Amino acid sequence: MKKIGIADVHNFLRAIILLGFASLIGYLVLTGDILLYVTPKLTIYLKIAGIGLLVVSLFQFYISFISLKREVIVCNCGHDHDHDHGHGHEDDDHHSHEPSRSLWKNVLIYGMFLLPLLLGSLLPNKALAGSLANQRGMNLGGVSVNGGSAPAELVELEGNEDPAIRSLFKTEPYNKDYAKLGMVLYQQNVIEMKDEWFIEKLQAMNTFADNFKGKTIKITGFVYREDGMPESQFIIGRMAMTHCIADISPYGIIVDSPDASQFENDSWITVTGTIDSTTFHELKVIKIDVDQIEPAHVSNVPYVYPDWNFASKL
Amino acid sequence: MANTATEKKPNNWNSNTIAGLGLALILLLYFFSANAPGTILNNPKLQIFKSVFISIILEAMPFILIGVFISALIQVFVSDQMIQRVIPKNPILGIITASVLGIIFPLCECGMVPAIRKLIKKGMPLYAATTFILVGPILNPVVFLSTLTAFRSRPEIAYARMGLAFAVALVIGLIVYRFVNKDQLKGNSNPSVQAHSHSHHHSEPHEHVHVHGHNDHRHPRPNKIVELMGHTVSEFFDMGKYLIFGSVLVGLLQTFVAQSSLVALGQGQGSSNLIMMGLGFILSLCSTSDAFVAQSFMTTFSKGSLVAFMVFGPMLNLKGLLMMLAVFKTRFVVLMSILVFVFVYVGTIILEMTLFK
């Protein structure tokens, strides 16, 4: 037997922190709030990670208890990696004979591990909308007005659609996927912008903005205003996520309505209207001339996700 | 012993300085961005910070766990001889092998750095490790496909990204092979002295004969697993603190510095490449998702600068840099950063004058 030393405190602290991370992930997965932080594709990895953390933390508890009775079981010892981290600091302190400094360092290090746990458990999980859109700058999916590169050879899609429509959607070979989607949308009475293919539809309509003039569109999203927008306009948008919040970015369409000023930033609405086009920051983009605006619920799926293979699913 | 002390002090000082400089830079950017100072305590900002911060940690968590677990596996089960047998003797062959390793192990740098550290300690040559760290996050099938699909209208961007990443890593690998002292691991300047000081510190003689000691006391079978888990835990806390600190910095930057104000800084030839490289550094995106972000800049930035963003970002970013500081000596990390910066910048300028003309 030996008395409880600093190493035991370390051991138990580590076990508790690991358990904390496992619980945080478990909680987020069970409540579904995990989708506020990462894409659905990543959740399976996080489930595995959560289980892994739980297993590792149980082992760490086991190690902690055993080392209460016996001196050092695992590698607090002659292993090469010990020099870098905590033990490295011990080395350091050993030379400088300043235990208080070591305490502060340890408080700092463990505090850093506790920070995400505290923030994660204390602050409510909320979907980010306009406040972050402000930081990122809105994507309207526009096409450069000046044309930029030289026009490439245009091709017509193959298929059994009406030849008249096919000739409307002539495009560069690389834009075929958007042309294909565009043709599908073109034949719909009302183009509905839902969670699925939000970005892809937006891109398709912007690529062929002239074809969609006069079409009816229905879209749900949050209200957002860019600096320097006229009173009668706002942007209705969604946040798109590829991987995690670090890469989140807003996508949207300009809405034109005499009552625009009634709608507050970040409020969720459904807009029905007619598609027209305009220029914004020297990009040609579609806009909506409003027929009707109704308040809407925040979408169950907080973000939209790009679907790289949308064309093969058409 | 004295050696260790003198070697260690400046190192710590250096990494502290770098961390301090990083914070100062953020404050500076913060004051220059559109936000009025003092909004720190306002709720929406805190909410953004929390979301970005937690999201990055969550996103990296599975990969860092894989990384530290692999690292622990290597520590417990792989001998130095095994590593030396696998890595080709010829340096050029070694570098090329290292650069295509990413195709077999599509890991991002969060998972890669802990494993690499262990591999270097087990005798993987520094030049091969450097090449792998640089090119692994880019030259792999997952990243190639995501880039190709994000730039479906401009496939040459995806090829340019892969090609430039390969070229840069190859050249840097060769430079490291030719000019850099092999021993660049942090706190590893004089292994024998280190080990010595350590045993003094603990005054635990049996620790030198670690494995034997175990066999004496207990059954060998559970020992391996406990040992594995013990290494996983200490490795996790070792790398984790750098990941978390990196996430704090990224979270602060993303909260207080508007991307649009950075983008507005420069659009000209040459300077736009620098801006996009800076953006890649700050955003610290996972290489599998950055192509999509780059694509949203397609209308405002040149193709060369987008490639700069997608090559520089995965090779060198705030989160990864801190993790590298956990492994390598500060001087080596600085050298590598400068090399990456110069070669990516020059490379994209050349691309712009040739392929993207």
From TrEMBL, chain A:
Residues covered by the DUF1980 domain: 13-86, 90-139, 169-306
Per UniProt, the keywords (alphabetical) are: Membrane, Transmembrane, Transmembrane helix
Keyword set includes DNA-binding: no
Annotated coiled-coil positions are none
Residue ranges crossing the lipid bilayer per the database entry: 12-38, 44-63, 107-124
Signal sequence bounds = none
Question: What protein is this chain from?
Answer: TIGR03943 family protein
Look up and give the organism this protein is from: Cohnella endophytica
UniProtKB/TrEMBL annotation, chain B:
| Chief subcellular location | membrane
**Keyword Lyase among UniProt keywords:** no
PANTHER family listed in its UniProt record: UPF0718 PROTEIN YCGR
- Keywords linked to the UniProt accession: Cell membrane, Membrane, Transmembrane, Transmembrane helix
Q: Which domain of life is it from?
A: Bacteria
Q: What is this protein called?
A: Permease
- Record keywords: Nucleus included? no
The listed locations are:
Cell membrane
What are the leading ranks of the lineage? Bacteria, Bacillati, Bacillota, Bacilli, Bacillales
Which family, according to UniProt?
A: Belongs to the UPF0718 family.
> One Gene Ontology cellular component annotation?
plasma membrane
